[in-house]
Specification:
The chain has 120 residues and is mainly alpha-helical. 39% of the residues lie in helices and 8% in strands. The protein has a domain of 44 residues. The chain has 3 helices and 4 strands, in the order E-E-E-H-E-H-H. The protein has a two-stranded antiparallel ribbon with strand order 1-2. Strands 3-4 form a two-stranded antiparallel sheet. The longest helix has 27 residues. The structure holds iron/sulfur cluster and zinc ion.
Length: 120
């Protein structure tokens, strides 16, 4: 069994583990077969722009000088994605708030609609 060292608690864990069994840190560099291999361009290292380097959850031995990595996740793209998710969330929150504020009105409309149906 190959082992690696957890970046947070420094315990030895199975290299295939997705989370550290000791401190529950997600170990994203292992255990995800069959996904594309990212390659660094020129003198750059992938880790410099990688989410998992930024949040210190990568325990891949090539870090921080990975030229090729299957687990690379672009930090900027990830941030954009989070922003988009937050925008979507705030839209649905304001729709919910509007419904809450206008519950009485909606109830009246519903009643009127029922009266209208009954009168047919
Ligand atoms: S590019 Fe790969 S090795 Fe570097 S931090 Fe990201 S996941 Fe880890
Ligand atoms: Zn750990």
């Amino acid at each position: 069994m190959d082992t690696v060292t957890c970046s947070r608690c420094k315990q030895t864990v199975n290299s295939q583990a997705i989370t550290c069994p000791f401190c529950r840190t997600q170990l994203k560099a292992y255990g995800h077969p069959g996904i594309p291999l990212y390659r660094a361009r020129g003198d750059e290292f992938l880790c410099d722009t990688c989410t998992y380097h930024a949040d210190d959850t990568c325990n891949y031995p090539k870090r921080p000088h990975a030229k090729e990595c299957t687990l690379y996740q672009n930090l900027e793209e990830r941030n954009l994605e989070l922003q988009r998710q937050n925008q979507n969330k705030s839209v649905s929150v304001s729709v919910n708030n509007w419904i809450k504020r206008n519950q009485g009105l909606l109830l009246i409309f519903a009643l009127l609609f029922i009266c209208f149906l009954l009168s047919l």
